[in-house]
Amino acid sequence: MAEDRVPDPAAGRARGRPKAWDDKTAQNTIKSLDRAMQVFEHLSQKQGVTLSELAADLSQSPATVYRILVTLEQRDLVEFDPVAQHWQIGPQAFLIGARFLRRTSLVDRARPILRDLMEQTGETANLGIAREAAVLFVSQVETQASIRAFFPPGTLSPMHASGIGKALLSQMPDDRLARLLASHPRERFTDKTLTAPEALIADLAVSRRRGYAIDDEEKTDGMRCIAAPVFDMHGEAVAGLSVSGPSTRIGLPEIAGLAAAVTRAAATLSAAMGAPAKY
To answer: Which PROSITE patterns match (predicted)?
Structure first.
């Protein structure tokens, strides 16, 4: 006969984390899983690599990396090309990523707005969200011009050298911005990249006042981007919307007209996301 138990009032309460959820010590991490995720993430950034290349990149033994790859392969997260002897991301990774995008209506609501923006401006239209100190591009409508910008969904770009990144940074509270700048180094990509905190902060102040940011060949020589923030129902910047293209088409005289189109599109998307009227 089972012994009587005193009901635990917390037993029936669903929790997303245990009480000590913020404890990141070794006892609460799975090293083998962490190592597998390192392999998976690196492979996603460097498609089509051999086992020996992947092992060398990660300073792991080929035997260990191979076991990880075979395990991921069984879940269709990676796949092997026997002809090229290359490992690459598998179809299940795309399905998981698609589920991430479906958790919010942002991408669905943005799609027709991006298409209209591309048709109005003749340049590639992009949608991105913040991921630590980078921009994660989640949607794009490409121009048909032969020379064009290309940021396929899943691409990461440093915020300090990205139009969308600077649009999002310009909306950050000062204390959060200071912490981010202090904790992440800023790589110089071109002579115009803003790496000094003072120069970047000054540029962000201008971006905030005018309502849009400009990547003036700061990531890639010969390419410009104009971006505006997208706000949600709480008035928080949750994404950025931009047009990007070669500086031969996006010259200084064209910036004002393109910026007007971008800010209108961002305002339309913000309204669709429930943002207050002032956004």
So the answer is: HTH_ICLR, ICLR_ED
